[in-house]
Amino acid sequence: MAYSITYTTAGTTYNLNGVNASLGVTIRYLGDQGFGLAPMHRITQRGPLQQGDSDIDFRLDPRILQLPLVVQASTLSASYTAREALTKIFTPANGSGVLRIQDTGYDRAINCVTLGGLDFNVDAVQGWHVRTVVQLRASDPTWYDPTPISVGSTPSISGTMTPVPLLIPWTVGASAIDTTFTIVNAGTWKAFPVITAVGPITGLIITNVTTGDKIQISGVIQTGETWTIDLGYGKKTVTTSTGINKISTVTADSSLGTFSIERGSNVVNVGGTQTTATSTVSIVYYTRYIGV
Predict the structure, then answer these.
(1) Which CATH architecture does the domain made up of 4-141 adopt?
(2) What pLDDT is recorded for position 25?
(3) What is the C-alpha end-to-end distance of the chain, expressed in Å?
(4) Which of 35, 76, 155, 281 shows its CA 20 to 30 Å from the CA of 7?
(5) 3: nearest Cα among 130, 103, 120, 124
């Protein structure tokens, strides 16, 4: 496919480098700034008599993206049509939009909101073309491939079925999930997944063996219930399909804040007991990138 750059907001996708028939304008994309390595700062500490300091860690900072755009217009009326079109695309809102770039074999997106630009300074001597630099702010500065990666686990019979001598012969056994698999994160940044568990499951525990982090549920996920553990930035929630908050069921030694799918190979174990054939656990994440 040919190169494209789009911005999706309020359910509508706009072409930033081509025709927008619904708006009656053609936008030309002139380049970008702020698409590369995410801004960051180092965390340091210094002792009373220390020369220099000790480097401890780092944190990524929000990203500011700048998009120089131009809409050609031969008349003042066409110029105002172009201005209105750009304002419609980038109207400030509290909900984030999605900036997306695509090319053959390449697909990256980032969630952002309008920060500024669009002042539409015009020099009539230079004609009525509308030139502006749109500023977008991404609170999470990492890009991602919009195609989600999904891995999952289903129950198996654990142990030996045990005969019980009752009037009507029947058997009991422990049905459980106990699966270990490898997730390979091909991106350049760690991913914080969404974990979905469908009951019945007792004592659900998901462990990233590679990092040592785990998420453990002390309660019982009942038959027919679906629990969602969202580990995304600014979320860290555990809710049922009916919206009930279950964060209190997460054990104190769980790694709710840090559990992630790290770059490279991750060995993950999913465990739980008292399951049936309808019990499932799925882990969904987006491959993330520190820059494009």
Answers:
(1) Beta Barrel (2.40)
(2) 95
(3) 18
(4) 76
(5) 103
